[in-house]
Structures are given as structure tokens and as C-alpha cells.
């Protein structure tokens, strides 16, 4: 197991314990406390979290379905190794989904929701001007979350919430397609204007160009 300090014990009162364990273990994979290739033993993890083995097993099965954990039946369960194909596939997926979310959200979102989306877009513009790739990714994710919520589509929201850990993990090492900060930022400024005008078609076209998708 990792040499990092034990996880804080979970308090099951009032919580859905399987979800809690899933969240804790997923975050540990994202921040490197559980490293790629590291073996995961349900008994040890249960002891560190102060829970029974059942919610740990449920969480590991869920993490496997989302690609953060891999299992060889009867041999081992371990943290999966991220790879360049997963990054490229996830980037393509997120770009298409975010473009669709714009088309869905802008005609139906409230003024308050739109203000929140524009606030996220402003943060994205600032990150692009500063030419900070990880901040660009972070700000894009926040805007993406606001757009998904603003669609009001419960299935869309649920599916993307479940995929959140896998998307974040797979995008480790992402860099913007456009390496020219001024040109890239101009694209984001134009996208923000389209968002403010609730022009989903234009916003979608700009986003697709920024991410190199048809």
C-alpha cells in the first residue's frame, strides 16, 4: 500500500457509505496517494477507512467500470495506468458533449444560470491570457459543469456526474490544441459573446474549432 498517511475514517451516519468510499478512493487516485499499478486490497482499505469490506468492494467495482481500477479475477485489483489514447479519447468526448450542452442549455437556462456560465467563461479567458494549461483545463471543467447543470436534463446530469472521476483522471497531462495564447484567447472571447447572446450555434462552432473537432 501507499506510504501516505491513512485516510480519515468515514462516518457512516447520514451518508451513503458506498458513495463516500468511492469518492475518497477516486480522489486518492487523482491526487496520487494511490499510484498507477498499486495493488488495492479491500481488507486493508476497509481498515484504513474504518468501514466494512462491503462498501469498499462496491466502490472498487464502480471504479473498475469507470476505468480507474483494473481487475484480474482471483489475482489482483490495482490502480490502472493512464495512457495517451485515453487522454485523446476523453478530450474528444468532452469537447463533443460540451458543445451539445451549449446547444441544450442556452435556450432554457435562467438569467442566474447564464450569469454563472459567463463568470466561468471569464475565468477561462483569464487563464488563457496567462497561458496556464492546467488552469485552462480547470476553468473549462467548471464552465462545463455549469453548462451541464443548466441543461436541466436529469439523465445528462447523472451520466456526467458518474463519469466525472474518469474524465478528470484521463485528462491528466492535457494541453490546449492552440499554442498561440492571443489567438486562443480571442476564440474564448468570441465564445463568451455567443454565450451571452444565448447563441448556441455560434458558441458550439467556436468551441469545436478551439478543440479541433468537426
Secondary structure layout:
Blueprint: H1 17-31, H2 42-49, H3 53-65, E1 69-72, E2 76-79, H4 84-108, H5 111-129, H6 133-151, H7 154-170, H8 181-196, H9 200-211
* Alpha-beta classification: mainly alpha
Q: Quick one: overall form?
A: elongated
SSE string, helix = H, strand = E? Answer: HHHEEHHHHHH
Number of helical elements: 9
Rg (CA only): 19 Å
Q: Can you tell me about this structure?
A:
- The protein is mainly α and 214 residues long.
- The protein has 9 helices and 2 strands.
- A two-stranded antiparallel ribbon has the order 1-2.
- A hairpin with a 3-residue loop joins strand 1 and strand 2.
- Helix 8 runs antiparallel to helix 9.
- It is elongated and about 55 Å long.
- The mean pLDDT is 90.
Amino acid at each position: 500500500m501507499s506510504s501516505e498517511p491513512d485516510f480519515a475514517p468515514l462516518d457512516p451516519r447520514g451518508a451513503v457509505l458506498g458513495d463516500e468510499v468511492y469518492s475518497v478512493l477516486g480522489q486518492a487516485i487523482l491526487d496520487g496517494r494511490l499510484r498507477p499499478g498499486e495493488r488495492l486490497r479491500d481488507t486493508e482499505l476497509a481498515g484504513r477507512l474504518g468501514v466494512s469490506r462491503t462498501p469498499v468492494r462496491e466502490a472498487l467495482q464502480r471504479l473498475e467500470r469507470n476505468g480507474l481500477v483494473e481487475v484480474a479475477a482471483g489475482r489482483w485489483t490495482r490502480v490502472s495506468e493512464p495512457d495517451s489514447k485515453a487522454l485523446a479519447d476523453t478530450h474528444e468526448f468532452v469537447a463533443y458533449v460540451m458543445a451539445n450542452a451549449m446547444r441544450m442549455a442556452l435556450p432554457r437556462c435562467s438569467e442566474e444560470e447564464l450569469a454563472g456560465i459567463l463568470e466561468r467563461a471569464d475565468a477561462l479567458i483569464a487563464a488563457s491570457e496567462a497561458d496556464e494549461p492546467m488552469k485552462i483545463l480547470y476553468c473549462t471543467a467548471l464552465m462545463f459543469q455549469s453548462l451541464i447543470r443548466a441543461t436541466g436534463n436529469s439523465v445528462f446530469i447523472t451520466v456526467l456526474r458518474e463519469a466525472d472521476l474518469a474524465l478528470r483522471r484521463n485528462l491528466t497531462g492535457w494541453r490546449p490544441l492552440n499554442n498561440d495564447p492571443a489567438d486562443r484567447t480571442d476564440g474564448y472571447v468570441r465564445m463568451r459573446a455567443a454565450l451571452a447572446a444565448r447563441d448556441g450555434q455560434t458558441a458550439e462552432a467556436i468551441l469545436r474549432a478551439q478543440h479541433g473537432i468537426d
